[in-house]
């Protein structure tokens, strides 16, 4: 018997005789306060702005013109389009569409000016956007390499109050990306630098919130 077999055998015997894990109490507050859907959307917008994200509100009719204006204001000549993004979202945009492809290199993604995505959900109390790689979101890297990310959140359908309410709605087997504002870090002098681990500019469109 090899050392590997002996070690694995000990682990197997230990786990077979181990007592069941004790139940974890879940008696903490799941939501901090009662809010209307409009209040939840307002809290999300306030916390996103606190993290230096740019927040916009529009309805379905105004979405395409708004996205076109945001891309034009950025001077974006190209925009990365994940599979499943509703085509009408970018119908008014002048930027060249770049399709999300598995074979795209980081250098190719870095050459794209902007990316527009949807999301899995948003959390009001923490000002967090969650992506899970679903339709309209694409692979994780397409929202980490381009310098400008525009994310559309459907209100109120995709907005929850708190993290405890969000977790049961998410699939832990999917590639979850949690975004709270644009990427940023600080050195020992507390000088803030944005765009280190992701986009320098995050713009969030609350769709359906006026």
List the keywords.
LUD domain-containing protein, 210 residues, four-stranded mixed beta sheet, LUD_dom, NagB/RpiA_transferase-like, Rossmann fold, alpha/beta, FTHF_cligase-like_sf, six-stranded parallel beta sheet
Q: In summary, what is this structure?
A:
The chain contains five helices and twelve strands. With 210 residues, the chain is an alpha/beta fold.
Give a structural overview.
This protein has 210 residues and is an alpha/beta fold. The protein has a single domain, classed as NagB/RpiA/CoA transferase-like (Rossmann fold). Helix content is 25%, strand content 23%. The protein contains five helices and twelve strands. The strands form three sheets. Strands 1-12-7-4-2-3 form a six-stranded parallel β-sheet, sandwiched between helices. The chain has a four-stranded mixed β-sheet with strand order 8-5-6-9. A two-stranded antiparallel ribbon has the order 10-11. The longest helix is centred in the first third of the chain and has 15 residues. It is globular, with a radius of gyration of 21 Å. The termini are far apart. This is LUD domain-containing protein. Pfam families: LUD_dom. It comes from Streptomyces goshikiensis.
How are the SSEs ordered, and which strands pair?
Blueprint: H1 3-17, H2 37-50, E1 54-58, H3 60-74, E2 78-81, E3 96-99, H4 106-110, E4 114-117, E5 121-123, E6 128-131, E7 148-154, E8 159-160, H5 163-166, E9 177-179, E10 184-186, E11 192-194, E12 201-207
Parallel strand pairs: 1-12, 2-3, 2-4, 4-7, 5-8, 7-12
Antiparallel strand pairs: 5-6, 6-9, 10-11
């Amino acid at each position: 018997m090899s050392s590997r077999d002996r070690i694995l055998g000990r682990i197997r015997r230990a786990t077979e005789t181990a007592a069941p894990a004790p139940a974890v109490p879940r008696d903490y507050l799941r939501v901090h306060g009662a809010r209307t859907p409009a209040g939840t959307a307002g809290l999300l917008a306030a916390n996103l702005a606190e993290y230096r994200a740019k927040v916009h509100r529009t309805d379905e009719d105004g979405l395409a013109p708004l996205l076109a204006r945001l891309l034009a204001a950025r001077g974006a000549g190209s925009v990365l389009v994940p599979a499943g993004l509703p085509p009408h979202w970018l119908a008014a945009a002048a930027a060249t569409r770049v399709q999300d492809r598995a074979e795209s290199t980081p250098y190719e993604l870095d050459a794209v000016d902007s990316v527009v995505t949807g999301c899995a959900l948003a959390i009001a109390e923490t000002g967090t956007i969650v992506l899970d790689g679903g339709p309209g979101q694409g692979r994780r890297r397409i929202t980490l390499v381009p310098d400008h990310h525009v994310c559309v959140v459907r209100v109120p359908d995709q907005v929850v109050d708190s993290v405890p309410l969000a977790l049961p709605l998410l699939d832990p087997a999917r590639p979850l990306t949690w975004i709270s504002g644009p990427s940023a870090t600080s050195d020992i002098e507390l000088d803030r630098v944005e765009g280190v681990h992701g986009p320098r500019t995050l713009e969030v469109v609350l769709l359906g919130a006026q």
